[in-house]
Amino acid sequence: MSSSPPAPMSGAELALRLLAAFRDLVDALHVELAEHGHSDARPLHGFALQAIGPDGATAVELGDRLGVSKQAAGKTVDALVDRGYARRDADPGDARRKIVTITPRGHEMLALSAEIFGRLRDARAAGIGDDMPAFERSLRALAPDLGSGLDSPGWFAR
């Protein structure tokens, strides 16, 4: 007796399953980050550190990159500074501006996150098996541009 293939997903189910997979991956990351001394890290912090980038950013630039207001970006910067992941420095070109840069602790968390994400990816690939390359090609086809991902915190709030 053969079973029929599952019915195609609805668009809503696809979106929810992608979101659930994202949440599961990020939650697993944060469990491991906590085990390595970063229990105070939150998902938003990773987005923010990526948005700050290697050259730093002002609160206005960070807000634009994250898709949030300058005030929300400022609160995020406060949290990053309080936790030791970022610092505020005077802009050498304009003393009225502050540049937010990533501290060694922030770089450590980003490097550790990349390592953990690699392990988590491998564990999921083991569960999917030979279908993983096709799955990854399909995801790349569905989302060819990763540039819009950093503004997800602001996008969720719209």
From TrEMBL:
Pfam families referenced in this protein's UniProt entry, alphabetically: MarR_2
Every HTH marR-type domain range: 11-148
GO biological process, any: response to stress
Top-level taxon of origin: Bacteria
InterPro entries: HTH_MarR-typ, MarR/SlyA-like, WH-like_DNA-bd_sf, WH_DNA-bd_sf
Gene3D superfamilies in UniProt: Winged helix-like DNA-binding domain superfamily/Winged helix DNA-binding domain
Any one Gene Ontology molecular-function term assigned to this protein's record: DNA-binding transcription factor activity
Protein name: MarR family transcriptional regulator
Organism of this sequence: Pseudonocardia sulfidoxydans NBRC 16205
